Amino acid sequence: MADSIFALSSGAPPAAIAIIRISGPAAGAALGALAGDLPPPRRASVRLLIDPRNGEPLDRALLLWFPGPDTATGEDLAELHCHGGRAVIAALESALGRISGLRRAEAGEFTRRAFANGRMDLNIVEGLSDLLTAETEQQRRSAMMMAEGHFSQRIEQWRRELLKLAAMAEAALDFSDEDDVPDADIEMQIGGAVSALAAEVGRQLEAPSAERLRDGIRVVLAGPPNAGKSTLLNALVGRDAAIVSDIAGTTRDRIEVPAALGGTAFLFTDTAGLRDQTDDAIEAIGIDRARAALDGADVIIWLGAPEEAPDDHRTILVAAQCDRIDHEEFHPGIRVAAPTGQGMDVLVQTIQDRANAILPGPSDYALHDRQRRGVAGLHEHLIGVNRERDMLIIAEELRLARKVIDVLTGRAGTEDMLDQLFSGFCIGK
Ligand SMILES: Nc1nc2c(ncn2[C@@H]2O[C@H](COP(=O)(O)OP(=O)(O)O)[C@@H](O)[C@H]2O)c(=O)[nH]1
Ligand SMILES: [Mg+2]
Asked: Model confidence over 70-85: pLDDT tens digits?
């Protein structure tokens, strides 16, 4: 029999209320031991909790009792909503720890049981994990979509479609033994259905990146020395993160500053001014790092001459220091003066528009690299089917495609990958 686990699932004490969860076959007995009797299932009941050792009262709490398997973890599950003082929690935890078959939960163990008991697939687990760490509105919305199973449902549809196609391929193989039944028709049908599925799977590859959503859109400020990059960065993030001076080569390393603008996470990077010649060995390294930052940028804010700008769809041209520099009329960039704030609203809006094109919309989810790799693998097998004429190989590709889906949902997965995923959760989740 599996052991039962308990943990404080609410935040750090002290707090008004704390929630202790118990999951596993001993959950009912544990609840009964503390409360005197087992409260009616799925209804909130108030009980005086006592120490089973000596009958001493521990706290008065609101109890929830969910008999399995139709519960969050798929097991018997109990919740104690007790007072959130440190000593109250400590007393209840030590009383629970003395009950046989019960032990403290490890990080993510409740969710891991839910996953093991088929209550959720790996993608919903990932969505929940993102929901717990969400800091911006966009992160929360996208994590909700994933946690609510929108991606999982889509993959389940793909899996069913693949099963159907596999059955058709098997039928075609059977028929091909009998010379008189033409199977060109079945081949056509499979080919058409696989093309449609490949197109849909291919579209999912364009889903936004969950890593970008979490870590921030990378905005890199670049241009020659003294263009005003550090000044502009400070104005964008609203604090003096980078040193500003009129000595060329002041910013020698790259400075990364996370900041949220309008509910979106950004990672702004200030760079060393780009110039071809420098005697300063450290500045030269800084210039190399600036070039590397440009390679990884989602958005480039270019403060140099427009004709020297990186010729790139990521680039936003800025005519900087327009309070003191008389830019030529034909300068196509946004006219900005960081110290006076001129043009800052237009620049911020432009950056946000670029970010919105990269990030998920209000009802989209984002995909983690793990998920994107799975979708890409699936796509490859489907393309493979369409290139193939031999029905035996087609059947095999369809089988491999289903295997990719099983890895994607976690139905087939490696233990260490699961260990890594669940250890990122908090205790009590
Ligand atoms: N008047 C004015 N001075 C600026 C502006 N931006 C930067 N500066 C000044 O120009 C010099 C170089 O600025 P800095 O931000 O260090 O340039 P960087 O080398 O590109 O990082 C500093 O003395 C700043 O105070 C601006 O928009 N207006
Ligand atoms: Mg600088």
From this structure: 999 999 999 999 999 9
